[in-house]
């Protein structure tokens, strides 16, 4: 087909191909979820419905898009790690980022009622996205460790903060003053001595966030089959192996996780 005289405008498109052999990480984060969580009466500091909805959306992203090896989420954010060898959309950064964020955002609205039941969605939420390339496995592990450490620091702070406000009746400003300059050990001590809470017994989902990985799971399904010599169809149970996105709430900072699931970082993927 002959080209129109307008074709030259294509040359204005910037090349945003991701470097070869690098892990491609897309992180998204809820826009102004400080307000969104207030308006939708999220439980403080952790709302199971909100966290589980985030994970449902992230599972959808992994299932719908290509080549995501692992995802990690906490609070109003999720990170998606594409395999270093992926050829999806010729490794164009804008394609990765926009597909991840739009699929996530539409899923958030689509699945909202499954988690929030009678709590109406009051306005359309938005998410920002960014893309970062990590050249080595160590860089990638350190990135994920950074996000999980952030989860821990924020959750410990928020857990004590809301105890001081909700149980001890401090104002938010008083609670903030009380916690200024305290170390992790001090916060653990306040929780234990004043509220009889052992932080280590708080739910893993709050303390560790959520890791999503692909796992083979056996499913038993019933199939209708027709045997040649019998007139009627018969129902039989068959076991099928499927690869599913599975949520874990475990430590990913230490080596144990990576030793247990070596296929995540395997070179040929
Ligand atoms: P941004 O990301 O710059 O547009 O602004 P925000 O407000 O989203 O700030 P960000 O992402 O640093 O902090 C996340 C906010 O979301 C924070 O205000 C707490 C809120 N949030 C996230 N998960 C929960 C939850 O489970 N319960 C409650 N109450 N709030 C949550
Ligand atoms: Mg932010
Ligand atoms: Mg946010
Ligand atoms: Mg955030
Ligand atoms: Mg198109």
The tally of beta strands, per DSSP, is 6
Main sheet specs: 6 strands, antiparallel
Helical content (DSSP H or I, runs of 4+)? 40-55%
What portion of residues belong to β-strands?
15-25%
Please state the overall shape, judged from the principal axes of the Cα atoms. globular
> Oligomeric form of this entry?
single chain
Q: Helix and strand string, N-terminal first?
A: EHHEEHEHHHHEEH
- Number of DSSP helices? 8
> Would you tell me the overall average pLDDT?
96
Helix/strand structural class: alpha+beta
The value of Rg in angstroms is 23 Å
What gap, in angstroms, lies between the N and C termini?
38 Å
| Parts with pLDDT < 50 across at least 5 consecutive residues | none
Biggest β-sheet: strands ordered side by side in the sheet: 4-1-3-2-5-6
Bound molecules: 2'-deoxyguanosine-5'-triphosphate, magnesium ion
What are the salient characteristics of this protein?
single chain, 269 residues, alpha+beta, 6-stranded antiparallel β-sheet, 6 strands, 23% strand, binds 2'-deoxyguanosine-5'-triphosphate, binds magnesium ion
Describe this structure in words.
This protein has helices at 33-39, 48-64, 93-116, 137-166, 172-179, 184-195, 204-208, 256-260, and strands spanning 23-30, 68-74, 77-82, 127-134, 210-226, 233-248. It has 269 residues and is α+β, with helices and mostly antiparallel strands. Strand 2 (68-74) and strand 3 form a beta hairpin. Helix 2 (48-64) crosses helix 3, helix 4 packs across helix 5 and helix 4 (137-166) runs parallel beside helix 6 (184-195). The protein is globular. The mean pLDDT is 96. The structure holds 2'-deoxyguanosine-5'-triphosphate and magnesium ion (MG) (4 copies).
């Amino acid at each position: 087909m002959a080209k129109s005289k307008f074709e030259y405008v294509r040359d204005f498109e910037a090349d945003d191909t991701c470097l070869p052999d690098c892990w491609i990480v897309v992180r998204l984060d809820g826009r102004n979820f400080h307000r969104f969580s207030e308006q939708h009466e999220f439980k403080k500091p952790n709302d199971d419905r909100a966290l589980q909805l985030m994970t449902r959306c992230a599972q959808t992203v992994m299932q719908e898009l290509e080549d995501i090896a692992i995802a990690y989420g906490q609070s109003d954010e999720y990170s998606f790690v594409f395999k270093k060898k992926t050829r999806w959309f010729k490794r164009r950064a804008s394609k990765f980022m926009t597909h991840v964020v739009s699929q996530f955002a539409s899923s958030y609205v689509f699945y909202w009622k499954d988690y929030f039941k009678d709590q109406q969605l009051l306005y359309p939420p938005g998410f920002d996205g960014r893309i970062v390339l990590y050249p080595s496995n160590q860089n990638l592990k350190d990135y994920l460790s950074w996000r999980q450490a952030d989860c821990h620091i924020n959750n410990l702070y928020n857990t004590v903060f809301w105890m001081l406000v909700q149980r001890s009746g401090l104002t938010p400003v008083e609670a903030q003053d009380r916690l200024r300059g305290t170390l992790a050990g001090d916060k653990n001590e306040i929780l234990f001595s004043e509220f009889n809470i052992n932080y280590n017994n708080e739910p893993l989902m709050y303390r560790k966030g959520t890791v999503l990985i692909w796992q083979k799971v056996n499913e038993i399904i019933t199939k209708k089959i027709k045997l040649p010599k019998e007139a009627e169809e018969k129902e039989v149970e068959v076991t099928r192996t499927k690869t599913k996105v599975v949520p874990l709430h475990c430590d990913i900072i230490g080596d144990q996780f990576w030793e247990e699931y070596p296929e995540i970082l395997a070179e040929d993927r």
